[in-house]
Amino acid sequence: MEENQNQGNQNQEKAKKIIDDVTLVEKSKKGDKAAFEGLVKLYSNYVYTNAFFILRDSHEAEDVSQEVFVKVYLSIKNFRGLSSFKTWIRKLTVNTCIDKLRVKSKTFDKKLSLESFEENYEYIFTNLNHNIEKNFFTRETVKEVLNIIMSLDESYRIPLILRDLQDYSYREIAILIKKPIGTVKTNIHRARRIIKEKLKYEKGKK
After folding, report:
1. Cβ-based burial of 31 (10 A; exposed 0-12, middle 13-18, buried ≥19)
2. Ordered domains of the chain (ranges, CATH)
3. What pTM does this model have?
């Protein structure tokens, strides 16, 4: 009973957010600055979290967040609503992150600091865990899985994030990262296998 009530509350919140999206987007398209600030407030954590997953750097994620909202501000008048605003801003975020990675002459696999990840864990868990649970065991292992994903090599991490956390198709991922679709599928398969092996190893230590 309580579970059904919680589900109902979540659905109401989701519906309210969609209405807010439509209202704020339409007002922003007419130059309403307060409405645009409302969109920024509504989606700032979402943009930052997605950028952080791909870039693994809190400062770069913040830079991307600012850049994305500048792009939104400059181009929102052209937003036709063929997809949801959330889908649109997600694509802008991913594309901006991919562009940032491309301009680097070399990508160094730096030692990862999970400080920002830990700070934003509750938000990440609430918004992204449904896909993680679907692909990787149970709710109890979600945090472990996120930590493993963040430690993966870029060639595995980015396709996996786009597929399992963002619901991009293999074809869309291949276009985004400019890799053959066969390579994309192979790397995602290997990434999932690495996660399962590490989870099994960690479970064996307990």
Report:
1. exposed
2. 1-108 (1.10.1740.10), 124-206 (1.10.10.10)
3. 0.65
